[in-house]
Every structure is written in C-alpha cells, then in structure tokens.
C-alpha cells in the first residue's frame, strides 16, 4: 500500500526530521565556511576575525611551511594500513566462523565487544598496553626476545593502526559472515560434483558473490576511518612530533594548539570535501564493479 | 578411508581450536582491562603482567566515586544520551513511515540527502559549533549537545528503521482502515506495536553512539556537562597518568554499552551497515 499522488501526509511527516537536520547542518557549515575565510585566532571573541578571502586555503595547500599534505599522506597510510588488513583478516575469520556451527552465536557476541567500547577509553587503555613494560611488549618479548618502542616516531602510527585493526576487524567479520550465510548451498554442491577444489570454489563462487558486500563494507569503513580522532588523541595526541597527526588531529592541532581558527577551519572544509569526493568516487567504482560482475 | 576421516576430524578439531584462540584474542584486551581495574598500583605495573593471580581490590572504584565524583559524569552522559535518543525517535519515526509507506517526488533524493549530511565528520565542525554555542550562550549545556547529536542520529535512525517498517505488511494497515480506522489509528494500533523490536534496537544503538561520542562532547563542554568519555583528561596529572582509576572508569563506562550491545546483537550487522545488510 504505497500511496501515490497528491497527499500532503508524507511531506508533513518528513518535515520535522528534515528541518532539524538541515538547520543544524546548514548553520554549522555556514559558520565553518565563514570562519575559514578569516584570520581569527583562538581566544579572540568570535566576531573579531578579519576577512582574508581564500588566503587560508592558499596557505594550507601551497605554502612551503604548511604541513597539510604530510598530514593528508599520513591519513592515506592510516586508511590503507587499517582497511587492507581488516578486510583480509575479516574475510579469513568469517570463513573460519562459517564452518563452526555450535559456538557461532557465542563467538559473534564476543566479537561485538571491541566495536562497542568507547574509543576514547580504548585509546587510553592501549596507551598502557603499548607502553615499554606493557602487555604488547610482553607478548613480543616472549615470542621474539625484544621490546619495541611503540611511543617512538617510527612505530607510533603502527600502534594506532593495530588498535584500529583490533577494534574494527570484527566489523568485517560480522558483515561478511552474515553474507556467507546467505550464499546458496546448491552452487557449492554443483561445484563439488564438477570436481572443483576448495580454493576454486572460493575463488569462483564465494568471492564474486561476496564482492558487493565487501565493497559496501569498505565504503562504510572508509567514511569512518577518515574521521577517527578519539583513539589517536587519547594514545598520542598526534605525536610524537607529527608521527600520528592524521587530518582530524591536524585540524585539532591547528585550531587549538596553534590557535589558528582560520586555517583550522579551512582544513576542516578540506576534510569534508575530501570525504564527500572520495566516498562518491568509491560508490561510483562500486557500482561499476558490480555492473561488470 | 577410515584414516582419511580421522585426519579430517583432526583437521577440523585444529581449525576449531584456532577459531577459538582468535576470538579469545579479540576478547582478551577487554578482559584484561576489567581485571586491571581491580588491581593495586603495584600489580598494574607488574612485569611480566599478572592476569588472574592477584588479590582484587576496590580501591580504584572507591577512588573514582569519592575523588572524581564519577556518578556526576555518568549522569550527564545518561541525560544527554537518553534525551537525544528520545528526540531522535520522535521525529525519525514519522519520517521513516513516510519513506516506507508513501511514494512522493524526490523520495530517494531526500533519503540520500539525509545520508550525505550524516557524512560530515564531527571533528570538522566541532570548532565552528564551539563558536555557535558561545554566541547562543549554550556552551557547556546539556541541551546543546542533545541537539547537536540529532544531526547524526536522525539520518541514522531513518535508515535503520526503514527496513523494520518495510518488513511489516502494509495489508495489515489496509485491513484496519477498511474496518474504519484512520491511517493514524492504523499506524498506532497495528504498525507501531509490530515495530517495537526495531524501535528498541535502534534506540539502543543510538544510545551507544551518543554514550561513546568523544570529540563533540570534549570541545563543547567544560565542567557542567562533561560526559564519561571526556573524563580521560582528568587522569593525566603532573605526576603521570593515574592508571588504576582510569581503568576503573573505563570498566564502569563500557559496562552499559557492552550489556546493551549484547542485547541487540541480532541487529548488529544491520546497525553497522545502516540497514543495508541483514544480520544472521
């Protein structure tokens, strides 16, 4: 009974939700853009900024002393360093869980826990686990006989990435496991009759049929990982130096530590543009791949 | 043949063990966190780490209740999360109903507009919101955070609930309307009771999201409206980080979401994918 026509009912029902969301978004984006065109510093009254046009954007993107691009590069490493292992591990573990019948619901319940824990607290806890005499170094020393300096420049980003892998691999496991359970048994039986090996069945049945789901999971996670602030903030605050200063941390440091609201807001606008643009690109890509498949 | 089945059984057993170890590995950091909350200072820093072999103490918990007044921050978190969830549902349920039961111009475009606005990262507008809050005199108030979270909660709720409404046959409402109910009465008497499960699950998921949220709460509050996740700053002192109370707070703060997460575990896959994928 989807009603058609001139009824005003749907409009009336949607308006409150749309008004609230639209007013909130429009109002804050309006402020953000306005701030990005001024030289306001933090601590000044908010109406004291002098308009400077696009100067903040020019500085961010082209000035030799700007560290925007290094932060963007670090964000890229962070995105790839988390999403690729999470997908591979997630798929592998989902396949393992798919053959496990008895304890599956207990296992999936346990895997929800890393996802629901509050990330700020996770970051703080990871800080202790990754300390010199922490849990992680204990494990590594037991296995390899060395202790690593996770708080140093070389490994800090790796530590942050490992925490994300712990938190979010279960995301891929749960989604892909749900997908695996919808795959038709007949296809596998037919393949078996034709003498296909397990690997061939995986390569030619499982993977193609799971592909739309894999891409959906990747796009959703991509949108999320670009904005991660709390875990990194709690673990290293963007440091040591700029070793973990991804774009969200860059925005925080520019606005609050360098007290440059204008440049910080310009960086915020850039982050929004990058998220929207790359997500649209990924969604497009996803549609093309699925169309060909 | 007998040899092969034994081998297969052994192989299966090994894979089962491997699976168990992996899942235990994901759970371990959390369990270790809970155990650390009950350790004395000495045991917290013991190397090699102690896991179960220690004398539990409630000293860290009594510390955060008396010195930090942690109940105040839990109360703030609860007020903000419950109020924001309630307001979200109040406007999202009618909107979802319209999306699920009516055809209208620009319907899909409107649905995607909601999703698009949801993509704006909190960290990129939080400082603009900081100035908004100051200009409105709403900095460090519950109400400002409650409203700000609606920007993300409402689109999320609409996408989540849509599937639940669509799963209820429209024929049921039609039958009630033939019997003389108005559409609104039909919704109240037929559809609403049937979507209670979905409504509860969505509410819980939104509650979890608000309860855990950090960057907006951290920069838009100072003393009066500070929430649980943003208390992390209190543990960093000049003499180092107070790990014991920190772990006690983490244990206390994550307890409700772990319980809630387990309650709604059947809906978790839909929750993670905005309802795009149904869970098993």
Alpha-carbon Rg of chain A, integer: 24 Å
Tell me how many strands of chain A there are. Answer: 0
CATH domain class of chain A: Mainly Alpha
The SSE order of chain B reads HHHHHHHHHHHEEHH
How many domains, in number, for the residues of chain B?
2
Kindly identify the CATH topology of chain A.
MetI-like fold
The CATH superfamily of the largest domain in chain B is known as MetI-like
Radius of gyration of chain B: 24 Å
Helical fraction of chain A equals over 70%
Mean pLDDT of chain A: 91
CATH class of the largest domain in chain B: Mainly Alpha
- Biggest β-sheet strands, sense, barrel of chain B: 2 strands, antiparallel
Q: Separation of termini of chain B?
A: 36 Å
**What share of residues are in beta strands of chain B?**
under 5%
| CATH structural architecture of chain A | Orthogonal Bundle
The dominant shape of chain B is: globular
Please work out how many helical segments of chain B DSSP would assign: 13
Task: Describe the protein.
The complex is a heterodimer of chains A (293) and B (280). Chain A has helices at 9-36, 55-62, 68-99, 104-116, 119-129, 135-144, 156-180, 185-193, 198-225, 230-235, 247-257, 261-292. With 293 residues, chain A is an all-alpha fold. Chain A has a single domain (78-292), classed as MetI-like fold, CATH 1.10.3720. The longest helix of chain A has 32 residues, at 68-99. Chain A is globular and about 75 Å long. Chain A starts with 8 loop residues before the first helix and ends with a helix. Chain B folds into two domains: 2-57; 64-272, MetI-like fold. The mean pLDDT of chain B is 90. The relative contact order of chain B is 0.13. A two-stranded antiparallel sheet of chain B has the order 1-2. Chain B has helices at 2-37, 41-44, 59-66, 70-101, 107-118, 122-136, 142-166, 170-178, 183-194, 196-212, 215-220, 243-263, 268-272, and strands at 236-237, 240-241. In chain B, helix 3 (59-66) crosses helix 12 and helix 4 packs across helix 10 (196-212). Chains A and B meet through helix 1, helix 3, helix 4, helix 5 and helix 7 of A and helix 1, helix 4, helix 5, helix 6 and helix 7 of B.
